[in-house]
Amino acid sequence: MDSTGGFIATVIERTRAYLDDASLDAKYDDNYLVRNIISPAFASVASRINNSTTNSISVWIPFPLQKGKPYYQLPPCVGEVWRLGVRTDDDWVSSEAMPRTEWHYRGPNWKVEGNMMVFSPTPDQDYDDLELQFIHNGEIQPFRMFSTTLIGSLSSVLITGTEGQFSCTPTNLEVGQQILISGTQSGSGNITSFVNPSIYYVIATGTSGGLTTFQLSSTYKGPAIATTAGTTINLTFTSNANTITFPVSSIPTVGTIDKRDSAYVGSIVRVLSTGQSGVQEERIISGWSRVGTNWQVTTRRPFSNIVAGSVTNVEFSPFGLESLYEAAAIGAALKLAVYKQVKPAHFQMLQLQYKDAMKTAMDHFSNKQMRTGKYFERNTADNSLNNWRNI
């Protein structure tokens, strides 16, 4: 693996090494390789994995519906829609919007038309907590940015109860996450025994009226703090970073930014810089949109060690395993070998290496969930008379 630990540099290095051709290196720069060789090679690898293994690569993303709006654009990386439902905080699916046939007397409920998800009948109310589960088709234009800004501030925070309850504009929070509160309170609300600054811990989260709700404790998983409902003027609430921004006019260090709506939703943002925390972190992207003159990227979970501020060397790329890196690199080398018209013996060697790399990758995904990804609902040693359901 490349010293940065990134997908892009690793696959480029290996692709060039498999061909070891100085004239090819001079003709095709890194940007060309990423845009025209590596990106389609990874999509091909992902397709073979998803269609040949028992555990496909699936992703959950937020998919809220609006009353009276029937059409919703799907991210480009959606290969096959599996489920549209509501999940609880512990990842149980509490309800699900089931698709029906086109000729059902109440309509199909939802169906996929091209790059759109169409609802019939039209949603009769807002559904803010719906999530979409889908198979990732591997379609992504990877790129790396030298400098981005990570945001962790909560905005429009209100104290909503007497036991540490708060609300804010929609953001990603999770139980156990730290919230730093600083400033001098001058609003109508109050945090009992608050000392500037203080760190609190999220002990509950939820949504209400399109807002994010959360409850705080002064200790990890401890009792709720005492509060007085009201505004929080002059107080700043900062959490671990969960939003990345950079100007629309930015030119990537390597690769090209895909300008399509929600282009990178379901893919990975990987912070390669070790300057802040000494570790590299990667998160699934749950939101990708243009806000003013910036691209705004929201991660499904906040970073654990990287705090708000400017960071360097951030990569937007496919999900990554060593076996996938290898398969994508050899697949890219095969495409370049066709361009270069390498000798048949060299081409056959690359084909054998590609088959070996794909076998390794598919073995990983086939066995990743062990029995649970492969069981049949019948009387077997693993599922005797379905008794497990009654445990």
Question: What does this molecule look like?
Answer:
The structure is a single chain. The protein is α+β, with helices and mostly antiparallel strands and 391 residues long. Helices cover 22% and strands 34% of the residues. The chain has helices at residues 7-19, 22-27, 30-52, 322-340, 344-367, and strands at residues 58-62, 71-73, 78-87, 93-96, 109-113, 116-120, 130-136, 143-154, 158-159, 165-168, 178-183, 190-191, 198-208, 211-217, 227-228, 230-231, 235-247, 254-255, 268-271, 281-291, 294-299, 309-317. Strand 3 and strand 4 (93-96) form a beta hairpin. The two termini are 45 Å apart.
Question: What order do the helices and strands come in, and which of them pair?
Answer:
Blueprint: H1 7-19, H2 22-27, H3 30-52, E1 58-62, E2 71-73, E3 78-87, E4 93-96, E5 109-113, E6 116-120, E7 130-136, E8 143-154, E9 158-159, E10 165-168, E11 178-183, E12 190-191, E13 198-208, E14 211-217, E15 227-228, E16 230-231, E17 235-247, E18 254-255, E19 268-271, E20 281-291, E21 294-299, E22 309-317, H4 322-340, H5 344-367
Helix pairs in contact: 1-4, 3-4, 3-5, 4-5
Average pLDDT confidence is: 84
Report the portion of residues in β strands. Answer: 25-35%
Order of helices and strands: HHHEEEEEEEEEEEEEEEEEEEEEEHH
Q: Structural class, from helix and strand content?
A: alpha+beta
Shape: globular
The assembly state of the depicted protein chains is single chain
Summed up, the helix count is 5
DSSP strand tally: 22
Question: Helix fraction?
Answer: 10-25%
The total domain count is 3
Using the CA coordinates, give the radius of gyration: 24 Å
Main sheet: which strands, in order across? 8-17-21-20-19-22
End-to-end distance = 45 Å
Q: Mind describing the biggest β-sheet?
A: 6 strands, antiparallel, barrel
- Which regions are unreliable across 5 or more consecutive residues at pLDDT < 50? none
